[in-house]
């Protein structure tokens, strides 16, 4: 474990040189430049608390040493992808980054559900990941890695191919809808710290690849790519949060929220491309900075939430939302950190989630100022969509906070829960503090991020503590936080310490029993009813009668995953059918195989003779 | 005389695909390997390494057929194994394959085009033997015929092929033959026959 | 940027309860009753101030903290909204999107408090309110977009200045924005047809639900916060979507008249309309969003600018 901690600290030191340009030559295999330095810094900032957490979390889980070693390998592969400078190194570490978590998940758990989840993860990421291979190898073929003009010289056909392949390849790994199906399967079954790293960093590294290819090496700023990113982002935002709302398992819910946040980052990137295509480099830089800030913020609060979920699972065994409760009082550290993380991800001021969401909202609003009409309308639609997403995320996390932390405990294990050991608490506390700090002074980081945008020379934004944008309103979180804190304290003082009369909750006068407890499905019911067309929930009610009276009522409700049913299952069925057809070629007979061999040789000879080959 | 030896080798290979008895097949293979050895000796005038190669090939002509004969002595077939196709069909197929090789192969750079064609034809005929014959032993024989063809090519290369490579090839071959012989014995003792068609029943 | 404006913004603290009071009086007169006086909310606040609070079983720190935090959020919102085209520069900026964020924080706090008491009625009301807010927030942001288009900025001062004068009303965009903002006012103040603020039936409550569990000064804070919400959204509406021009004093007068007009309009709407079925509210708000998007499209397309 100490070795892994040292790796984390080493990464931290290596990543700290943001802004100072390292050797960015392409021919050597490894190097760092400001963009990869930023991602490396985010990785370090996320990984160190996670490793501190894992130090106390792992010894109690099965296969601790193997999982710990595999976590270290995973971190190394992430670092490798970020510092790789040529095609082979990048692809090698990319594959390693995909395979190591699968191995780590299978070490800890081996049951059928987990195995099928891991298979789905590997299959989908590799199928989509073919896009990465195509894009990078085409780039290397044209000598365009690091040199944008080379691909521009190769013509728009090659550019379009690279752009689409990279979008599909990196998008699958990042979790854009409709390529997301592996995310809600793989992330929940991993150990908590590994989920934190996967959701926090693996997705971001995929976005790093996307930024590199689409922004820096493509050699052009096509408007259709910006529109595609906006559309994909909007789809991912809304789809991610809608399906998160109907989940009962906390970790699966958090996995769907990762999809939503990746959508927000895509919205920022799309806006940046649209600004660049329209020639407005200031706002292109601002939108780019918004996306990168959200990358950092999401990594931090998502890691915090997954670590919190892991700590909660350790304390109460099960993460079914309807059977928790009252944990804020019993586990103050974990509960407090989880509360901070939830408020951050719901996008509430003055925490860091609101800072980056505010920036993205500003960018989208300014996109809506532009002709052509289609761009403006899509910008407006994206703006409304992001506002809806923020409100939906707020609903979802009020529900989570209420069910997990507030109210009274619903199970015996919840009453007896205690805070986890110091290491786990320290990891979570560090991340929570980071959420607050990044929320209060985002303006210190944003100008540096704006300078990372492609095509920007020199500082685009002045450096303030808050977010001051040229020509539009500004967000000053520090005064806001101070004002809120001061006013709250003042009002609490005004409220006075009069003794409050204890009373039961009002339930029309009847005693409050556990059957009256509100569930997750109940809280989201109005929304589910309104969005019936999109969610297609199904329900079954069974009433059992005995001797003329109702004995029991059973209710089962279910929201299917639409994309699974309409896209993935037919594809899988067709693939299996094709495979069974191809199986007829495999007769198991040595002589048949020798016949294939002979036929192949003679066929090749004929081709050579006819001059087609060689 | 070299041309005659080469043609003899091809004829013996074609004969293996036709014969019924395993002992006759082994004898034909022995004759083919002997012809190859004599050819190597003939071509070896000049360098000492070539004599070594010729000695190796002659040794192979003696040892491998002996091993195979011991094998068939241990594993008598109770009934004659039904063939996949009649002998005439097999001969015609092998002939067609040899003709394809002769026509289609591009010039390989040996001095005698006849040798080239024959060598490649032998390789392909060996593969055909593997396809067309059902008993395990004949499949082994087919592999050995193909190996003979490769050796013919190696020997005829101007400048001679290094004996290290020859030895390596021989070693692999010996290994394969030994393992295959062990398997054949085992299968024969389990099933009572070496018919590969029945081995398909062992699947699933 | 002036002391008078700062004073006016701070005066909002005291003047806010006047707005729901006047709406109630207006409604009563329209319905043929005499109704309560305009100062009734002040009397309610005074009465609540002298009562003791309640501690429901199982309620924790969130329950106790929520009313103070909510009132603090709305005080911050009061400082962000400029009055009569000027702001008192109270240090919080004047950004429209920050205002949206602060109001979202207020919603979160109240909903979390209702979870802390685990009261069924409060939770049902919170669920409905959050569901409506999903669409309401989209509509609010789109309405702010329409106001930001002439100003090219999200600074409320710039938006207010760009909406001054009469020329902005010549194109269809501002009319679309006005319609959308009217719907926003209905959502944020919780008036019919979206919500019935006078209801006493717990099963029909949307905004009132979480207040069921509070008493004493806590409830006073929450009532005041509701009034402050009226102030924030009505003043914003008058700033952005009602005509104003001229000097500061004239603007103050026009603002007062505009707010009074909006209160009257709300009273009329509440009297005329019955409460809409809650599951149909998103459709209404969706229509508002479509109108707003059409307005934005027309602006960018250059129609009648």
What's this model, at a glance?
Chain A is mainly alpha-helical and 614 residues long.
Cα(first) to Cα(last) distance of chain B is 53 Å
Largest sheet of chain B: none
Low-confidence stretches of chain B: none
Shape of chain C: globular
Q: Give the uncertain stretches of chain C in residue-range form.
A: none
In terms of quaternary structure, the protein is heterotrimer
- Contiguous helical run count of chain C: 11
How would you characterize this protein structure?
The complex is a heterotrimer of chains A (614), B (204) and C (305). Chain A is mainly alpha-helical and 614 residues long. Chain A has 25 helices and three strands. In chain A, helix 15 runs parallel beside helix 18 (422-440). The mean pLDDT of chain B is 76. In chain B, 76% of the residues lie in helices and 0% in strands. Chain B has one domain. Chain C has 305 residues and is mainly alpha-helical. Chain C has one domain. Chain C has helices spanning 3-15, 18-30, 40-49, 61-80, 96-117, 120-151, 156-162, 172-189, 216-241, 248-272, 281-301, and one strand spanning 54-56. The mean pLDDT of chain C is 88. The interface between A and B is medium-sized, with 14 and 19 residues. Strand 1 (501-503) of chain A pairs parallel with strand 1 of chain C, so a sheet runs across the interface.
Write the layout of secondary structure elements.
The complex is a heterotrimer of chains A (614), B (204) and C (305).
Chain A: H1 2-15, H2 34-57, H3 64-83, H4 87-108, H5 112-141, H6 148-153, H7 156-174, H8 183-189, H9 192-217, H10 223-245, H11 250-278, H12 281-316, H13 327-330, H14 332-345, H15 352-367, H16 373-404, H17 412-415, H18 422-440, H19 446-451, H20 477-495, E1 501-503, H21 520-523, H22 525-530, H23 532-535, E2 538-546, E3 549-558, H24 562-583, H25 590-610
Antiparallel strand pairs in A: 2-3
Helix pairs in contact in A: 1-2, 1-3, 2-3, 2-9, 2-12, 2-18, 3-4, 3-9, 4-5, 5-7, 5-8, 7-9, 8-11, 9-11, 9-12, 10-11, 10-16, 11-12, 11-15, 11-16, 12-14, 12-15, 12-18, 14-16, 14-18, 15-16, 15-18
Chain B: H1 2-16, H2 22-43, H3 48-74, H4 87-104, H5 113-132, H6 136-156, H7 163-191, H8 196-199
Chain C: H1 3-15, H2 18-30, H3 40-49, E1 54-56, H4 61-80, H5 96-117, H6 120-151, H7 156-162, H8 172-189, H9 216-241, H10 248-272, H11 281-301
